[in-house]
Amino acid sequence: KQEVTQIPAALSVPEGENLVLNCSFTDSAIYNLQWFRQDPGKGLTSLLLIQSSQREQTSGRLNASLDKSSGRSTLYIAASQPGDSATYLCAVRLGDMRFGAGTRLTVKP
Amino acid sequence: GAVVSQHPSRVICKSGTSVKIECRSLDFQATTMFWYRQFPKQSLMLMATSNEGSKATYEQGVEKDKFLINHASLTLSTLTVTSAHPEDSSFYICSASPAGSNNEQFFGPGTRLTVL
Questions:
Q1: How far apart (Å, rounded) are the C-alpha atoms in residues A89 and A37?
Q2: Alpha-carbon separation of residue A90 from B37, B52, B75 (angstroms)
Q3: Within an 8 Å CB–CB cutoff, is residue B8 touching chain A?
Q4: In chain A, whose CA is at the least distance from the CA of B4?
């Protein structure tokens, strides 16, 4: 059974820092991997989707990488801002989607 | 495009009552819809997958008689929590996959259920 782990569970950084969030999964036979943002009490906002054949995707200050063979993905956030404060979830898909528990990010002004 | 709505956004009910949550795809037809449950500070857990016009497929450990899912049209799926108990209090999120999208999912804003 696919298990998805996110480290760290929580992270607090000062504004302007670059940071990396980690996601690992146990079964490398995935169709794609997706990073989401979730604000408190809200639904999910898709940030980046990486197909299994891709190595990375970029959108603005966000860059996500995928190493399928090692079962790892990272989300890099450049020049963090207080508005980036949220929980970041990664999810892998093979048939259905399996989510990690998320990393709660706080960016302090 | 690809907007999914849920109604209600928040509901409080008494123990023993039933609650219906609606999930709608507003600008596309969804052949498949998914229902997730999220407990505080935990991951989203898939409860069931529903295909329009057929019975839902439930994940292991999810009681199909307690969580009734109906996907009667290509734009609407409903989740009914029957005889709700306090332990059913959770955040319920649906997602919808457009026809021909190979199951790419678009998520609704979620429904917060509190059972007293």
A1: 6
A2: 16, 27, 27
A3: no
A4: A43
Tens digits of residue pLDDT in B2-25: 899 999 999 999 999 999 999 999
| Nearest CB partner across the interface for A99, out of B6, B43, B103 | B43
Q: Are A88 and A100 in contact (CB under 8 A)?
A: no
Cα separation, B88 vs A66, in Å, equals 36
**Residue B103: its pLDDT value, please?**
65
Q: What is the pLDDT of residues B55-96, one digit of tens each?
A: 899 998 999 999 999 988 899 999 999 999 999 999 999 999
Q: Tell me, what DSSP letter sits at residue A16?
A: T
Answer yes or no: are the C-beta atoms of A99 and A5 closer than 8 Å.
Answer: no
CB A77 within 8 A of CB A84: yes
A-side interface with B, Cβ within 8 Å?
Answer: 4, 36, 41-44, 46, 49, 89, 91, 93, 95-102
User: Residue B110 has what DSSP assignment?
Assistant: -
Angle at B2 between CA A106 and CA B7, to 5 degrees: 75
Report d(CA A77, CA A20) in Å as an integer. Answer: 6
